[in-house]
Design brief:
mainly beta, Pdz3 Domain, 2 domains, seven-stranded antiparallel β-sheet, 22 strands
């Protein structure tokens, strides 16, 4: 497969990656020791107050209802903008455009993307790679007004950022939808500012779920065929009821333009990250201190496992909470807090979503025998502007 993954954002230079990442490369079947994701249950600060009322079958009615909540994010040169990496090390390059496609002076030109209002007080959700390391941005509303926005915080790990619009407190906000139950084939539509053209609507369906594209340990993208182009990054993906089920973030493209393969961060993940940034200024994630590996058929046969389901504990950090909870290298985790673990990425997300300091029961296979272990969840946080 040829082509590259690109941020759906205008004015950012980065490095392209061959499309082979889509074929299943996921840290060479190894996941980094630190598993971190947003902690659940924090709701302060982000409260959608506007749930659109729409007529069945009328896309125009839905667009009219949610359009005022979608904004354009402009990062101007005087904000000190620089392109940012997606996550740890050099993961940002995985979505970048090739140097032959990018403006030579992209950092000094600033950037352009989209966002959407989730609280009437002017709380905007967008992508981390849209705001870069800027502290302030310009937010252009659907009616043409331009207001200053203050970056409250951003999270590289999930590519989510939150902006506070200054100078107003009565904005229309969209409501979060249920991304967990979005099905392949469900109708969706996207609103954003492709190529800086302003409010633009495209429609399509959910093409696939749970896509891993090499962006990081929390890859769980919704794939859609609604047209997403440069400048759409950070814009909302709506379901058929006009609720946000995703944040448009990346495309797969041989040419840099839309070919019907776009990716959106699920709303459940984006919502929890945004809530924590607003409420606490940082994102807290569970951590246990292990490295995971997929259970291959050869490994399953060698350790007398019935199948390849689960997550193999390849390494245990002696200073981590897993070591203190009697988890051993060679254990295959099959369940976490009563939920099945099918693959390493499932466990990574479950651990990261668990609250630090709590204890959960995990089911493991050890030397071919099933047993339950009480696992204490450790904690860590990211800084607001990390």
């Amino acid at each position: 497969m040829s082509g590259s993954f690109s941020f759906a954002k205008a004015g950012v230079a980065a490095v392209a990656l061959a499309g082979s990442a889509l074929a299943g490369a996921y840290f060479s079947d190894r996941i980094p020791v630190d598993f971190k994701r947003e902690a659940p249950g924090l709701t302060a600060g982000v409260t959608p107050v506007f749930a659109p009322t729409v007529k069945s079958g009328s896309l125009a009615d839905m667009v009219a209802a949610v359009g005022p909540s979608v904004v354009q994010i402009q990062v101007k040169p005087d904000t000190g903008f620089q392109p940012t990496e997606f996550g740890a090390e050099d993961l940002g390059r995985l979505f970048g455009r090739g140097p032959q496609d990018a403006p030579e002076q992209a950092p000094s030109q600033g950037g352009l993307g989209s966002g959407f209002i989730v609280d009437a007080k002017g709380i905007v959700v967008t992508n981390n790679h849209v705001v870069g390391n800027a502290r302030t941005v310009t937010v252009q509303l659907s009616d043409g007004r331009e207001l200053q926005g203050r970056v409250l915080g951003r999270d590289k790990q999930t590519d989510i950022a939150v902006v506070q619009i200054e100078g107003g407190d009565d904005f229309k906000a969209v409501a979060w939808g249920d991304s967990d139950h979005a099905r392949v084939g469900d109708a969706v539509f996207a609103v954003g500012s492709p190529f800086g053209l302003g409010s633009t609507v495209t429609s399509g369906i959910v093409s696939a779920r749970g896509r891993e594209i090499g962006a990081g340990p929390y890859d769980d993208f919704l794939q859609v065929d609604a047209a997403i182009n440069s400048g759409n990054s950070g814009g909302p993906l709506f379901d058929a009821t006009g609720r946000v089920i995703g944040v448009n973030t990346a495309i797969f493209s041989p040419s840099g333009g839309n070919v019907g393969i776009g990716f959106a961060i699920p709303a459940e993940m984006a919502r929890q990250v945004a809530q924590q940034i607003v409420a606490n200024g940082h994102v807290a994630r569970g951590r246990i201190g292990v490295a995971l590996q997929a259970v291959t058929p050869d490994i399953a046969r060698a350790i007398d496992a019935p199948d390849t389901k689960g997550a193999l504990i390849a390494q245990v950090d002696p200073d981590g909470s897993a070591a203190q909870s009697a988890v051993r290298s060679g254990d295959i985790v099959r369940s976490f807090a009563g939920k099945p673990v099918e693959a390493p990425r499932d466990l990574a997300r479950m651990v990261a979503a668990a609250k630090a300091g709590t204890t959960v029961k995990v089911g493991v296979l050890r030397e071919g025998k099933a047993r339950d272990i009480d696992l204490r969840i450790g904690g860590e946080r990211t800084t607001p502007m990390a």
